[in-house]
Amino acid sequence: MAFREIWKKYRPGNYLRELSVVILGIFITLTATNYFSGQSRKKEYRQLIEMVQDELRANKRAIDNSISTMEIQLDKISFLYRHRDNLAVIPADTLEKYQYVFYWLEVPKFTDHTLEVLKYSSAIHYNKDIRIIRDIMEAYDNVGMCETYIGMFYDSKQEYIDRIVLETDRMATAIVGKLQAEYSSRAVVDFLNTTYPSDLIEECRVCSAKIGEIIGRLEKKYPPKKLRRR
């Protein structure tokens, strides 16, 4: 059978055209799928970075509040110690506020939930700048260090509280009498004479500053939505 007759009978050109259409359709489908998948990962990554910023800002606020609280405690404890022999002349409402200052043990709660989500998200592979991930890890490391320092501050304080309880007469009921007994305790003197609490506060302040710098770099590269609308 002549080639021309075979061509007319079986029409291979039609099969080639149909095959080309199928191949082109598959190519377009795969291309579109990859594109929309990439866009989805890009959007997910962006959302995670913004959630990281929110979590770091919340942690930094908690750290800064703790620093302020610890400084206030040291200041009030020092004030009561200096005036321990003249507490009766201090306004009653001031004594009312200060009487439990040595017993404040306000350990804040920090979170790293978003960091854990980011670690296991496939969207992290969308990031092309390894410095961003390094900065995020460093920021959370500093949050962890602050949590440790604050815990050490209150653990140290608890040791002095235990000593005060042992060294003073807890039977006193009047505020003045109770405070005079407590602030005549050697434990208070030792607490105020050590630089340990102040050193821990300073370490927290350094960590907070580092976290703030990293948040600033993240915001510069990934501005929060409310800033982008302006």
Summarize the structure.
The chain has 230 residues and is mostly helical. It is 77% helix and 0% strand. The chain contains nine helices and no strands.
Describe the 3D structure.
With 230 residues, the chain is an all-alpha fold. Helix 2 (12-82) runs antiparallel to helix 8. 21% of the residues are buried. It has helices spanning 3-10, 12-82, 92-98, 113-119, 130-167, 175-182, 186-193, 196-221, 225-228. It is built from 9 helices and no strands.
Decide which structural class fits the backbone.
mainly alpha
Largest sheet: none
Q: How many helical stretches? A: 9
Overall spatial form: elongated
Helical content stands at: over 70%
Name the beta content range: under 5%
How far apart are the first and last residues' alpha carbons, in Å?
77 Å
Low-confidence stretches: none
- What is the rounded Rg? 33 Å
Record field, number of beta strands: 0
List the secondary-structure elements in sequence, H or E: HHHHHHHHH
Mean pLDDT: 79
Key words describing this protein structure:
230 residues; 0% strand; elongated
Topology, please?
Elements: H1 3-10, H2 12-82, H3 92-98, H4 113-119, H5 130-167, H6 175-182, H7 186-193, H8 196-221, H9 225-228
Helix pairs in contact: 2-4, 2-5, 2-8, 5-7, 5-8
